[in-house]
Amino acid sequence: MDDNRSRKLLLQFDGGSRGNPGPAGIGVTLTTPEGKTIYELAEFLGHHTNNFAEYTALIRGVAAAVKLGASELVIRADSQLVVRQIQGQYRVKSPDIRPLYQQAMGLLEKIPKWSISHWYRENNSRADTLANLAMDGRTTIEFPGSGAAER
User: Fold this and answer.
1) Coil, helix or strand for 31?
2) For residue 8, which of 73, 69, 61 has the smallest C-alpha distance?
3) Which residues pair with 27 in a beta bridge?
4) Within a 10 A sphere around the Cβ of 11, how many other Cβ atoms?
5) Do β-strands 72-77 and 8-17 pair in parallel, antiparallel, or remain unpaired?
6) Cα–Cα distance between 99 and 33 in angstroms, integer?
7) Which residues contact 84 (CB under 8 A, 6 or more apart)?
8) Residue 124's pLDDT band (boundaries 50, 70, 90)?
9) 7 near 69, Cβ under 8 Å?
10) How far is residue 74 CA from its own chain's centroid?
11) Which residues pair with 12 in a beta bridge?
């Protein structure tokens, strides 16, 4: 199978906010099981909380995986809160975050098989770098690998 059309993808994401709330940004990477990067996103979000940024990163990443035709998605993130809420271990209490949670779950329903797990920040360095790039530059940069734009 061509890497560009791989049905199994790895999503790593990170979101951050300087000041919480403050200038916020996200980083998203999608790779094949072999490690080939097929999609990256650094996006500045404006003035938001860290939790808003983390959920937005998850939403952007899952949406990209859906567009790329993922049939299996392995998700790794350094936000214990988001991971445990998506796993159903924690309730979503914040009325500001609940719609983002619902949007993320709706997108995940479009992927036949998925899992999410917590990774420590040092194992999520590329997504963290992209989030910081977005916050530092106050810009959005999308890096589709070959084939990512083919929807």
Assistant:
1) strand
2) 73
3) 14, 42
4) 26
5) parallel
6) 31
7) 90, 118
8) confident
9) yes
10) 11
11) 29, 76
Amino acid at 50: N
**From CA 39, how far away is CA 123, in angstroms rounded?**
18
Residue with tokens 């996103």: 41
User: Tokens in use for 116?
Assistant: 């999410």
Length of the chain measured in residues: 151
DSSP state of 138: T
Q: Residue 17 corresponds to which amino acid?
A: S
Token reading at 41:
């996103």
CATH architecture of 3-144: 2-Layer Sandwich (3.30)
- Report the alpha-carbon distance of residue 57 to residue 74 in Å, rounded: 15
Would you state the structure tokens that stand for residue 121, as one six-digit string? Answer: 């920040």
**pTM of model > 0.85:** yes
Amino acid in the structure at residue 111: I
Q: Which of 119, 151, 150, 148 is nearest to 40 (CA)?
A: 148
pLDDT tens for 26-82 read 999 999 999 999 999 999 999 999 999 999 999 999 999 999 999 999 999 999 999
Torsion of CA 144, 70, 109, 131, to 10 degrees: -30
